[in-house]
Design a protein that fits this description.
- The structure is a single chain.
- The chain has 16 helices and no strands.
- Helix 2 runs antiparallel to helix 3.
- It is globular.
């Protein structure tokens, strides 16, 4: 049974917080825009948050299905012709519009993370980590936060409330002094929105890609980022 396999997965590993390593990487990220530093920060500050998220996922109905079927989101997210055939207004079409407008690819996230998060893990944990990484731009799409600096800070704040990785919060704190007052209000709004939303890692994204984006936001209690949107124009 998938549930027994998941619950028996050995989650032992380095869960120490390494704040000085994370702060050096955060300074480099802010000074140079080197986005690979994000993965350094997340790894240094994840503590036990990753273990907690994995356990929650593994014991959820969707998580049991994903682990039991060995699902892989990457082929779906890289099949641009398949995404283009989805209905207008669907999450998959909105995701495609987002990555094409930003000249992004799911493979790019894979390449960026490989040097920083390649320590050996049980197969189920590795599958979950890959899934979370590949959902990053889907999460941008479904929450309505863009890839501008403020949008990234808002998304990090939103996802911190969902996943609890202190690295997300550290990046926001270190960038806070550079954010103008209206932007700070948008970040506070993202904090509230992340708390109100249903737990995004536990959703069946394979099925949701073909669904209307507005319906998905309603079902997942994802609030419109009213304070962010005027600043993203």
């Amino acid at each position: 049974m998938p549930a027994r396999r998941a619950s028996g997965t050995n989650l032992a590993g380095d869960t120490r917080l390494r704040p000085f390593e994370a702060m050096r990487a955060a300074r480099a990220l802010i000074a140079t825009g080197d986005t690979s530093q994000v993965f350094v920060i997340f790894r240094a500050m994840r503590g036990r948050s990753g273990q907690r998220s994995f356990r929650r996922f593994a014991h959820s109905p969707v998580g049991r299905a994903v682990l039991g079927e060995r699902r892989d989101l990457l082929p779906l997210l890289t099949d641009r012709e398949g995404l283009r055939r989805l209905p207008p207004g669907s999450l998959g079409r909105a995701y495609l519009d987002f990555v094409e407008a930003e000249n992004l690819s799911a493979q790019g996230l894979v390449a960026a993370s490989q040097d920083w998060d390649n320590d050996p893990q049980p197969a189920d944990v590795e599958l979950f980590r890959r899934r979370m990484r590949e959902l990053h731009d889907v999460t941008h799409t479904v929450t309505g936060y863009g890839r501008d600096d403020l949008g990234e800070l808002c998304l990090l704040t939103f996802m911190y409330r969902q996943q609890g990785n202190l690295g997300m919060l550290l990046i926001v704190i270190m960038a806070w002094s550079r954010v103008p007052r209206p932007g700070r209000k948008a970040i506070r709004e993202a904090w509230r929105n992340g708390r109100k939303a249903r737990w995004l890692p536990g959703q069946d994204w394979e099925k949701l890609l073909a669904r209307p984006l507005n319906e998905i936001r309603g079902e997942l209690c994802i609030q419109v980022p009213h304070l962010y949107q005027p600043m993203s124009q």
